[in-house]
TrEMBL record:
<keyword id="KW-0067">ATP-binding</keyword>
<keyword id="KW-0472">Membrane</keyword>
<dbReference type="InterPro" id="IPR005116">
    <property type="entry name" value="Transp-assoc_OB_typ1"/>
</dbReference>
<dbReference type="Pfam" id="PF17912">
    <property type="entry name" value="OB_MalK"/>
</dbReference>
<keyword id="KW-0378">Hydrolase</keyword>
<keyword id="KW-1278">Translocase</keyword>
<dbReference type="InterPro" id="IPR008995">
    <property type="entry name" value="Mo/tungstate-bd_C_term_dom"/>
</dbReference>
<dbReference type="GO" id="GO:0055052">
    <property type="term" value="C:ATP-binding cassette (ABC) transporter complex, substrate-binding subunit-containing"/>
</dbReference>
<dbReference type="InterPro" id="IPR047641">
    <property type="entry name" value="ABC_transpr_MalK/UgpC-like"/>
</dbReference>
<protein>
    <submittedName>
        <fullName>Trehalose import ATP-binding protein SugC</fullName>
        <ecNumber>3.6.3.-</ecNumber>
    </submittedName>
</protein>
<dbReference type="InterPro" id="IPR017871">
    <property type="entry name" value="ABC_transporter-like_CS"/>
</dbReference>
<dbReference type="GO" id="GO:0008643">
    <property type="term" value="P:carbohydrate transport"/>
</dbReference>
<dbReference type="InterPro" id="IPR003439">
    <property type="entry name" value="ABC_transporter-like_ATP-bd"/>
</dbReference>
<keyword id="KW-0813">Transport</keyword>
<dbReference type="InterPro" id="IPR040582">
    <property type="entry name" value="OB_MalK-like"/>
</dbReference>
<dbReference type="InterPro" id="IPR003593">
    <property type="entry name" value="AAA+_ATPase"/>
</dbReference>
<dbReference type="GO" id="GO:0005524">
    <property type="term" value="F:ATP binding"/>
</dbReference>
Length: 378
């Protein structure tokens, strides 16, 4: 059992430097919580606060109903796994995993049983006699995780544990961590700057920027309903496309968004209540339109979706084409930035060729240019 709550938690290093500000979060038993955000946003600081490695300057940390601001790290029942594996080089894998239990003076046969049990879960039984120097990066990381698991903590705290691994191994370890979370049935709090890790691992994502929480929620829910421009741009790869637009209410109850200085798409429409909402508040003014690469289509697909009357008018050629096997991503120049469009791999449009684009405006987001808030979510 573990319930962790942070209430108005602040960490101020000195008069200018904040780690986190007014951090409020409930972490429930067995959740897989991800702190995600760009470098320096306060992820590690928050994790270290939970671990007891960093003192809070203001606010409260509650663990299982107990105010724990000043609890010693070892009294908190947490296990931490770092980016650098922190294995003892002179001990075997077995020795590394058994170490924490030996210190607790557990009987030898019990230690032996536990080491084998955990080694089996992580599929490292065949490595038990090796020393860390004879292991690959991925194997070392498994041993580090094994050493953490064996203590049966209330929660695992992981700080970018996969960032030293190559892309393929990282993808494999992501799958294994999800499996491990199910098997262990414990809380995991996991720090990463990688939005893919956040999306694939978490049951709950905490998006952070400049020491402040931006949004908390399930991965899909945040992806579909980002509260502001930052969250919208941070989750998703390639990122959501943004365009400066002017709002123009038209006669037949339609709301047009005219893309400022646009080369590719000149004009799109928002219909129904969403259109009305924008027209009421912003007619004649600027907004920022956001649309994900997968919500932009070519004519054939647009026809199937019935959105072929939405917009087209492309004068600009494809500047880059990435064939990724299961999808193809076309890039255009737009408003001095790159517009990315994700299409099916059958699409044969090459660099230098022109193509008509259609936006699925049902999926579009509109942001206030001053507050940067998502008008349809906030
Ligand atoms: N010991 C420290 N003294 C001063 N500033 C610090 C200290 N540790 C971290 N910071 C600052 O706090 C902010 C958050 O750091 P950190 O939590 O490590 O970010 P993240 O893990 O998200 O990259 C950064 O601006 C960092 O420079
Ligand atoms: Mg960090």
């Amino acid at each position: 059992m573990s319930e962790i709550a942070l209430r108005n938690v602040c960490k101020q290093f000195d008069s200018e430097h904040y780690g986190v500000k007014d951090f409020n979060l409930d972490i429930h038993d067995k959740e897989f919580v991800i702190f995600v955000g760009p470098s320096g946003c306060g992820k590690s600081t928050t994790l270290r606060i939970i671990a007891g490695l960093e003192e809070i300057t203001d606010g409260e940390l509650w663990i299982d109903g107990e105010l724990s601001n000043y609890l010693e790290p070892k009294e908190r029942g947490m296990s931490m796994v770092f980016q650098n594996y922190a294995l003892y080089p002179n001990m075997t894998v077995y020795g590394n995993m058994a170490y924490a239990l030996k210190i607790r003076k557990l009987p030898k046969d019990e230690i032996d049983r536990k080491v084998h049990e955990v080694a089996k879960i992580l599929e490292i039984e065949q490595l038990l006699d090796r020393r860390p120097a004879a292991l690959s990066g991925g194997q070392k990381q498994r041993v580090a995780i094994g050493s953490a698991i064996i203590r049966k903590p209330k929660a695992f705290l992981m700080d970018e544990p996969l960032s030293n691994l190559d892309a393929k191994l990282r993808a494999q370890m992501r799958v294994e961590l999800v499996k491990l979370h199910k098997q262990l049935d414990t809380t995991i709090i996991y720090v990463t700057h990688d939005q893919t890790e956040a999306m694939t691992l978490g049951t709950k994502i905490v998006v952070m920027k400049d020491g402040l929480i931006q949004q908390v929620g399930a991965p899909q829910s945040i992806y579909d309903n980002p509260v502001n421009l930052f969250v919208a741009g941070f989750l998703g790869s390639p990122s959501m496309n943004f365009f400066r637009c002017t709002v123009k209410a038209e006669e037949n109850n339609r709301t047009a968004l005219l893309l400022d200085d646009a080369k590719t798409v000149k004009k799109v429409y928002l219909d129904g209540t969403r259109g009305k909402q924008i027209a009421d508040r912003y007619n004649g003014r600027h907004v920022i339109l956001g649309i994900r690469p997968e919500d932009i289509y070519e004519l054939d697909e647009a026809k199937k979706l019935g959105i072929e009357n939405e917009s087209a008018d492309v004068d600009e050629p494809v500047v880059n084409r990435e064939m990724l096997g299961a999808e193809v991503i076309l890039y255009f120049d737009e408003q001095g930035k790159t517009l990315a469009v994700r299409l099916s791999p059958e699409n044969q449009t090459q660099v230098g060729e022109k193509v008509s684009l259609y936006f699925d405006m049902e999926k579009a987001h509109v942001f206030d240019p001053e507050t940067e808030e998502n008008i349809f979510v906030s």
